[in-house]
Amino acid sequence: MSSEDQTQDSPFRSERTARDEARQFVLPLVARIERADPPARTDALEAAARAVLVILSDARSTGDGEWAQVMRDWQDARIRKVVRRARGAEWRRAEALDGITVTGGSAEVRVFPPVPLDGWPKDLARLQVSGTDLDDPEPPAAPDRTAPVLWLSPDLDMSAGKAMAQAGHGAQLAWWELSDGQRAQWREAGFPLSVRTADADHWGELTRSGLPVVRDAGFTEIAPGSCTVVADHPALRPAGLQVP
């Protein structure tokens, strides 16, 4: 478990913390899901995780950048991400809003600067949240263990939208744990990563390994405190951890 997750004011604790007293924001992510040609589930999860990293590292999100203050406000409160789906004209309207589109394999995901919980732009607020489910045409290949792997819990049944948000949480926890130099290396490489469901025999070892763990606050779909993702970044990986 990461040091962030262990603190009393972790953004992912189910118990009320000091973060709940701050104004609450949400990071919107929109997945392009055309009716006739939806993306593969794993591609969508990986694109969502990279989208979170891309906006965290964007110059507009740091220092005196135009998104910097709202990014700080969002990270000082609960870390909430909501994934909505769009197609056709909906997607074109979403693309016209300030944000960043990340592609990967068959997936396109656009991430936007955080917005207040009750302050969504109308072209995003009208998009559907529920029912975002996707499949992989065939089982994904074994992940490249020389790059980060975001391991999903084998015990939880999450919609694609929920899993995309959780993968984004895992990527963000790993980002927070890295040094500036390690972050720069990851960014310059294009944020390589994989998202895979862990083998049931190894999930317990992963959650006890000291790697960053996302424990969901329980706002949607799953019980509060559920372990959803372990962020297995090579720079954070403990010696001797064996996961196929």
Q: Can you walk me through this structure?
A:
The protein is an alpha+beta fold. The chain is 31% helix and 18% strand. It is built from eight helices and nine strands. It has helices at residues 3-6, 41-57, 68-76, 89-95, 122-125, 160-177, 180-188, 200-207, and strands at residues 25-32, 81-86, 100-104, 107-111, 115-116, 149-152, 194-197, 213-215, 227-232. The strands form two sheets. Strands 1, 2, 3, 4 and 5 form a five-stranded mixed β-sheet that branches. A four-stranded mixed β-sheet has the order 7-6-9-8, with helices on both faces. α2 (41-57) runs parallel beside α6. The two termini are 20 Å apart. Residues 1-8 have low confidence and may be disordered.
Task: Write the SSE topology.
Layout lengths: L2 H4 L18 E8 L8 H17 L10 H9 L4 E6 L2 H7 L4 E5 L2 E5 L3 E2 L5 H4 L23 E4 L7 H18 L2 H9 L5 E4 L2 H8 L5 E3 L11 E6 L12
Parallel strand pairs: 1-2, 6-7
Antiparallel strand pairs: 1-4, 1-5, 3-4, 6-9, 8-9
Main β-sheet description: 5 strands, mixed
Report the C-alpha radius of gyration, rounded: 17 Å
Q: What share of the residues does DSSP label as strand, in percent? A: 15-25%
Report the structural category.
alpha+beta
Give the tally of β-strands: 9
Helix content: 25-40%
The secondary-structure element order is HEHHEHEEEHEHHEHEE
Distance between the termini: 20 Å
With helices defined by DSSP (H or I, 4 residues minimum), what is the helix count? 8
Low confidence ranges: 1-8
**Mean pLDDT value:** 89
Form type: globular
